Amino acid sequence: MKYLFKRKPLVVFTLLLSVYACQNDDTDQNNEQTPSQDVNFVIQMESGDHLQTMNPKMYQKLVQRSSTAKNSENNASYSLDLQTIQIIERNTYTQYTTAVLGHNEQVTSLINYVFIEFDDGATYQFLIKYPRIVLGEDETIDHANAVMEVIDGEIVFNKSGIGQPRPCLDGVPEIIESVQQYICVYTKCSGNLNHTWGEECPCEFTLGCIRATRTCGWETVNVWGCSGGGVVSGNGNDGTAGGGSNDPNDTNQDDPVVTVPIFDVRDANIKNKLLEYSNTTLIKNKLADLGQKIFNPNYHLEDGAMYKRLANGQYTNRPPDVITELGTEFIPEFKIGEVVSLHIHALKAWDYSGDVPVLKEVSPIFSKIDVHKFLKFRKFREDTEENIPGNNDDDIVAILASKTGIYALAIGDEEKMSEALTALGNDPEYHPTQNWNSFRDRFNDKVLDNCNGDDDCIIKAFVEFLKDKHKELGNQTLGIRLYEAVINNGEITRWKRL
């Protein structure tokens, strides 16, 4: 039997609480469900900043792991989302879990990184992959078919001769069972004093920080161990870590390893933002207008608009500063507070690269110049001081409407995007760098030329191009995510990541 849940289980709900403004006492109490039975275990959700203060050694290990994985030579490179860390303390060990970013399997699987540190010094690292399943409007994950992959080869983590042998974890643990357990999830106050739930906290009276929370409820939990039972060794502290015989009177015996998935919060935030943007009347009407122009055989402009978000979900718009028949490139000038860049690719556009202008078919996906301008858009937001409530650097998106659908570029990794812009140069159209010329040629070759005008091929090639490591970027990816609107009965009902 498959154990499925929607995208907002207990842990996800608790994570989303951490990004909301302070609420009053009544709201906090409604979020807390007082346990009416025994709690199986407790989860502490810790921000990266707090963990760095309270346990700098552990935080540095996670930073090092993220850096090592990011710079991996193989195609399975990734980084760790250290904004939020899930901590589970069990008998004889502490377990740290983060979301994984940038992995080449993350479209089909939710991937978590797990670091287990035993009291006797033994440490283990794993990647856990939960298959994703889309059921209509809901995305779920399959707990029962999750797999755990061991990470080894790093001396800093796997210290020789430390800790008792643990046969299950030394091999590859398997799921013993997926069960519903009653757990409580705690988040600390977001302020510098790290107040825990129940403590008196000044965040109750100020908007400068978010109060601590406790949320209790039923959650699907995977229990990992040895298939067919554990293997006891040593003094009984074999750390079967799930499976095998457990002596309830032995206080030194390891608890089974249990996992509760932690989601890529940024992915959820991006999808929510995109849905908010696309359902805003101002943007929605513009998309409808552009949709008619896309299929007009006599329309050859890259029409569009820039949108600035005000407080309380209100938006203002302006046309791009440059929209001309003689210069079909969409060239916006970024302004403070703008979060959405929207434009279309018409069926055909004028090509002025030769002696005589000619009409050519336009790619249905973002161009290389579009990609570069999104890098500049993010950099502008990073460098711009603004005090608009609810605005974050990762809220910006570039939306494209074309004959095949509606797509959006979003921020995946700020550091990679910053490095990519530095490597490619700030003005590729008029002052191209050597890196840009090489990058441009590979884009043309891999995304455009190889597909010979096949739209499906071009979109798939573009997706792979975003995932690729580029020599021009120091063998790194662009750090950009791509999303597509799901349209039902003429309405955008959700966004999916490609």
Descriptive notes:
It contains 11 helices and 21 strands. 34% of the residues are buried. Mean pLDDT is 77; it is low at 1-35, 228-250 and 322-330. The chain folds into 2 domains: 10-262, no CATH class; 268-497, no CATH class. Strand 16 and strand 17 form a beta hairpin. The chain has helices at residues 10-17, 25-31, 48-54, 56-70, 167-170, 265-279, 281-294, 368-383, 414-424, 434-448, 455-467; strands at 41-47, 79-90, 93-101, 109-118, 123-135, 138-141, 147-151, 174-187, 213-225, 257-259, 304-309, 315-318, 322-324, 327-331, 338-344, 348-351, 358-361, 397-402, 405-411, 480-488, 491-497. It has 498 residues and is an alpha+beta fold.
SSE layout and pairing:
Blueprint: H1 10-17, H2 25-31, E1 41-47, H3 48-54, H4 56-70, E2 79-90, E3 93-101, E4 109-118, E5 123-135, E6 138-141, E7 147-151, H5 167-170, E8 174-187, E9 213-225, E10 257-259, H6 265-279, H7 281-294, E11 304-309, E12 315-318, E13 322-324, E14 327-331, E15 338-344, E16 348-351, E17 358-361, H8 368-383, E18 397-402, E19 405-411, H9 414-424, H10 434-448, H11 455-467, E20 480-488, E21 491-497
What count of domains describes the coordinates? 2
Gyration radius (Cα, Å) is: 25 Å
Secondary structural class: alpha+beta
Total strand segments: 21
Task: Classify the oligomer.
Answer: single chain
**How can the largest sheet be summarized?**
10 strands, mixed
| Total of helices | 11
> Beta-strand level of the residues, as a percent range?
25-35%
Mean pLDDT: 77
Rough outline: elongated
The helicity comes to 25-40%
Which residue ranges are poorly predicted, with pLDDT under 50 across at least 5 consecutive positions? 1-35, 228-250, 322-330
Distance between the termini: 28 Å
